[in-house]
Each structure stands twice: as C-alpha cells, then as structure tokens.
Amino acid sequence: MNLEELYGRHGENLHRYLVFKLGSAEDAEDVLQETFCRFARYTVRWKLVRDPRNFVFRVARNEANRFLRRALGRREGEAMIVGGAGREGFAAVFTAPDEPSLALLLRLADGLPAEQKEVVFLKVFEGLTFKEIGSVCGVSANTAASRYRYGIAKLREAREGKK
Amino acid sequence: MGNDLDDIEKSLARLVPKPGPHGLRQRIIGHALKARKKAVVTPRMRALAGICLVLTSIVMVGDAVVSKWQSGRIAALLGGPVVSKPAGEEARLLWVELGADLGDFDKFRREGIVLSRLGSRDDSRWAFFETRDWLKGMIDHEDTENYY
C-alpha cells in the first residue's frame, strides 16, 4: 500500500478522529504516527481488506485505546476508554462560526455519553454507515444506530430545553 | 423525529473543523517509511518464513509416512510380530480352551509364540489346530527349554 496515497485519502480524517477521541492534538499526532507505522508494516493484510476506510478507522481506534492503556495504566486506561478520554472532543476539533446556536450545540454535543458521541461523530462528520460504525467500534449495526438516535434525541431535548 | 434528526445533523455539519498542524503529513509519512525500513522482519522475510514452515511440515509428514511404510515392509520381510486381528482372537480362544496353570510371564511368552505362529500362516484354521497341538504338547511336557 502506497503510504502517500493512503494519507491523502484518510490521513486528515484519521487525525481529526484521533483528536476528537483523545482530546489532545499532540497525543493524536503520536497515535496517528503509530497507526501509519502499523500500516507500513502491513503487506498481506491490505490484500485481505475489503473496506479500507472502515479498516483504517478501526486500526486508529485500537491504537488510541492502546495508547491510553500504556499512558494511564491498564485500569485507568480502560476507564478512560469507556468514559471517553476527550471530554471536549468536539470542541477540540471544531469551531462554531459566529452563531450562538452552533456554539451551544457544540457544548451540548460534548456533554453526550462517550459512546453516543463517537457514533454521532463518525456518522455526521466521517459519513460512515451504521454497519461501518459498528465494525469500527466493535458493536452491531443496530447498536450503533440506536446510540446515534439516542444521542441526537438528547441533543434535541437539551437544545430545546436551553432555548 | 426524522425532521429533528435532519435538523440536528444539518446544524452539526455546519461546525467548522480546525486546521490540522502544519507539516503533519510529512512527519507521519517520514516516520512510517523509517519504520518500514527498520522493521526486523521485512515482508519478504515473513514470506520466506512461511514457505520454510510449509516445506518443513511437508518433509516431516512425508518422513513419518515413509518410515511407517518401511517399518511395515521390514517387519513383513522378517516375519516379525505382524499379527492380524483374527489371529489375536484365536490366540485368546486357545488360552481359554487350554486353561493351563501358568505364571503370567510364561503366559505372555507363550501367547507371543502362539500369535507369531498364527499370524505367520495364511490359512488360520489349520494354523489354529496346529498351534493348539503344539501348545498342548508344550504344556504336557512343561519344559522352558523347548518353548522355542
């Protein structure tokens, strides 16, 4: 696999996803580096991959989890993986243009539970299908879909409550 | 519900991504290429190791099969302890029929002789009678010198 081509297709998106997931641009860069080193070592595996976009996100996610376990220790790392390392994941990646309702939405989105936040991110910003999100996060497509619906419903309720 | 979903999705999609760090692409690709060069086990070595593993397995399995076949042939040529299943059964019947008062050790030795005698003949009925007479004679004239 040509690394230049791979980066051109997925590099920016993976970096954004990792910043969102880890809540830190520096950590995200380290993890992205590890992820691409891993891609560089894969040769046979690339030939077996059916959906490269899905695959690169899954590898990046696993690498981020490995990074958290290594940095924080097994127990705390696991807690961070479940609870979400990037508590301000959306705010770390996005800015709201001069529009108060969008700034509010950004804050509200960061208040979602980590698992719902991740699905919303992958669906809205990366355009992954529920099946692909399920594969990336290690859950079924139905679980991914229901997490998404719950997340969006919570955002709607919170936004209407704040109006 | 559908409209709400669309509405929230549309609002989220209006958020603007922050620009990535400058020179990230070069750093990432540079590191990945270095890692590929420094890899202890290169893809070519890995493929070679796989081929070696397959070849070793073929040689080991082949050797086991050939050894078994050769042992069978040698045993057949030497008339060794190649005892057919029916011959073993007949030997047991003989022991029951004779029921001689012998020690365990002798029994095993005798059974071994009977098995080899039965097994070395194609016509097992004749072998059965012949062996029984031979064995009876041995038991009547209990003498270890004459067993062989």
Strand content of chain B: under 5%
The largest pleated sheet of chain A is described as:
none
Any idea what the shape of chain B is?
elongated
Number of strands of chain B: 1
Regarding quaternary structure, what we see is heterodimer
- Major beta sheet summary of chain B: none
Discrete helix count of chain B: 6
Distance between the termini of chain B: 98 Å
**Which descriptor suits the 3D outline of chain A?**
globular
Low-confidence stretches of chain A: none
Q: Round the Cα radius of gyration of chain A to an integer and report it.
A: 16 Å
Q: What is the helical fraction of chain B, as a range of percent?
A: over 70%
N-to-C CA distance of chain A: 50 Å
| Alpha-beta classification of chain A | mainly alpha
Number of strands of chain A: 1
Overall mean pLDDT of chain B: 72
Secondary structure category of chain B: mainly alpha
What does this structure look like?
The complex is a heterodimer of chains A (163) and B (148). Chain A has ten helices and one strand; from the N terminus they run ααααααβαααα. Chain A has 163 residues and is mostly helical. Chain B is elongated. Chain B starts with a helix and ends in an 8-residue tail after the last helix. Chain B folds into two domains: 32-78; 85-146. Chain B contains six helices and one strand; from the N terminus they run αβααααα. The A-B interface holds A 3-4, 7, 11-12, 15-16, 25, 29, 32-33, 36-37, 39-41, 43-44, 90, 92-97, 99, 101-102, 105-106, 109, 120, 124-125, 149, 152-153, 155-156, 159 and B 4-5, 7-9, 11-18, 20-21, 24-25, 27-29, 31-33, 35-36, 39, 43, 46. Strand 1 of chain A pairs antiparallel with strand 1 (16-17) of chain B.
